[in-house]
Automatic annotation (TrEMBL):
Alphabetical list of SUPFAM superfamilies matching this protein: Multiheme cytochromes
Keyword Cell membrane: yes
PTM comment text: Binds 4 heme groups per subunit.
Matches recorded under InterPro entries: Cytochrome_c-type_ET (IPR051174), Multihaem_cyt_sf (IPR036280), NapC/NirT/NrfH (IPR024717), NapC/NirT_cyt_c_N (IPR005126), NapC/NirT_cytc_sf (IPR038266)
Classification of source organism: Bacteria, Pseudomonadati, Pseudomonadota, Gammaproteobacteria, Chromatiales
KW Transmembrane helix (keyword) present: yes
Topology relative to the membrane: Single-pass membrane protein
Name of the protein this chain belongs to: Cytochrome c-type protein
Gene name as annotated: napC
Domain named NapC/NirT cytochrome c N-terminal: residues: 10-176
Length: 184
């Protein structure tokens, strides 16, 4: 009898332990996810790259209303599963950091078109999802926009166009497409 009591007590303790450990783990997991979204984290590798300096000149860094879009706002999805997928894929960045793939301005420029192309593809596939966490066609006051913006935006949705088709190079300069070796 006493033995059975001891057993169920241990079982309850075990359940409590797993429960508490689970909360602790989830907390750590979440904390590490958000820590890896901090701008300081991104620029600890993407330090002196021209595209970071270019960003600091952009309206997404500083503007009259004081709303800032950070690296992760545009490059890391908010929804859980796409976010995890992005983090897992980003492990390749650590590999390339160790290999020094973009560790000089020259190498960075050489790689730039390929990297930008990956970002464009991703944004086309997601219908510019990250842009739309802040911007929506339906919330735009078209009457306050310039003529060309107004007419493009009014029709973009019907035509199935997405932000990144028209707004490349919005914070970083447009990279140059590498020249094909033989010009024939
Ligand atoms: C450990 C160093 C390191 C950290 C931290 C890091 N990056 Fe990178 N990143 C790299 C390297 C190296 C590349 C080039 C990878 C390649 O050529 O495939 C890269 C490539 C990129 C690209 C180009 C597109 C692509 O898929 O290759 C983007 C965008 C990017 N990083 C954004 C970010 C953002 C946003 C953060 C912060 C959330 C971040 N990086 C944190 C090293 C890093
Ligand atoms: C975190 C919120 C946020 C995200 C994400 C975001 N933006 Fe913005 N965007 C802003 C703010 C804030 C401004 C400045 C508004 C102002 O003061 O006029 C702005 C301005 C702009 C402008 C006009 C100024 C300029 O630099 O040309 C364009 C175009 C634009 N965003 C496109 C985009 C696109 C494309 C994306 C996705 C790649 C994107 N934005 C992602 C918040 C955001
Ligand atoms: C068919 C092309 C097209 C599409 C698609 C498009 N835009 Fe634009 N947008 C323009 C043009 C052209 C302008 C005016 C010139 C400029 O600022 O680049 C503009 C201007 C803007 C501006 C500045 C408006 C102002 O007058 O202050 C913002 C912000 C903006 N776009 C955000 C977006 C976002 C976010 C999306 C996706 C939800 C988007 N645009 C989709 C063509 C487009
Ligand atoms: C407003 C959205 C936005 C913000 C904020 C932003 N990026 Fe980007 N990033 C883009 C887009 C869009 C591209 C694709 C190339 C282009 O159109 O400029 C890109 C491309 C890149 C690339 C590929 C190389 C290149 O220059 O094209 C890297 C690396 C990168 N971003 C890193 C960063 C880092 C690091 C930060 C923060 C310091 C940051 N980005 C902030 C939208 C953004």
């Amino acid at each position: 009898m006493a033995d059975a009591k001891g057993k169920s007590r241990r079982l309850i303790l075990l359940i409590v332990f797993i429960f508490v450990a689970g909360i602790g783990f989830a907390g750590l997991f979440n904390a590490s996810l958000s820590a890896t979204n901090e701008m300081e984290f991104c620029v600890s590798c993407h330090t002196m790259e021209t595209n970071y300096l270019e960003y600091q000149d952009s309206l997404h860094f500083k503007n009259p209303s004081g709303v800032q879009a950070t690296c992760a706002d545009c490059h890391v999805p908010k929804a859980f599963l796409p976010k995890i997928a992005t983090k897992v894929i980003a492990a390749k960045d650590v590999y390339h950091e160790i290999m020094g793939t973009i560790d000089t301005p020259e190498k960075f420029e050489e790689h730039r078109w390929a990297m930008a192309s990956r970002v464009w593809k991703k944004m086309e596939r997601s219908d510019s999802r990250e842009c739309r966490t802040c911007h929506e066609f339906k919330n735009m006051d078209l009457s306050e926009q310039g003529r060309s913006a107004r007419s493009r935006h009014a029709r973009a949705e019907d035509k199935g166009q997405t932000c990144i088709e028209c707004h490349q190079g919005v914070v970083h300069e447009m990279p140059r497409e590498p020249r094909v070796k033989d010009d024939g």
